[in-house]
Write a structure and sequence with these properties.
single chain; alpha/beta; 6 helices; 19% strand
Length: 135
């Protein structure tokens, strides 16, 4: 049923994660779905609000706030105009609700944690630039 699905995309704004986002937008996302970008930061900044969410991850950040450089700096993420343009187009064309959740720590552990805590219907992850043989 449309609107009931929560599709996750592991997003660090690298070329592989942008390709995973493009693939999910073309092949997986339907009208009314929720697209949740899961971002994991390696370092924990020692500033205010980030310490509150270190264990559980940030609250869901709407797409409109992702474009704001002040908010991006607050969470320590480096967004990309190409990816934001893709996300804005997807939100308009397919009426998808797009939010981001940021975790701090080990990427493998936090991505597995995100599947349970959000909860996600499915998760799309890029191939980290590895060929079929190295994966």
């Amino acid at each position: 049923m449309a609107g009931d699905r929560k599709i996750g995309v592991a997003m660090d704004f690298s070329s592989c994660s942008k390709e995973a986002l493009r693939w999910a937008a073309e092949n997986l996302v339907r009208n009314g779905d929720h697209l949740i970008l899961v971002n994991v930061q390696k370092e924990v900044y020692e500033s205010g609000e980030v310490q509150l969410w270190e264990a559980t991850g940030s609250p869901l950040i709407p797409l409109s706030d992702m474009s704001d450089p002040t908010i991006a700096k607050k969470y320590g993420i480096k967004t990309d105009m190409e990816a934001l343009d893709t996300l804005n187009t997807l939100a308009r064309q397919k009426e998808v609700v797009i939010v981001m959740k940021i975790y701090w720590g080990d990427a493998r552990e936090k991505i597995c944690e995100a599947i349970d805590t959000i909860p996600l219907t499915c998760l799309v992850i890029g191939n980290r630039g590895l060929s079929k043989l190295k994966r």
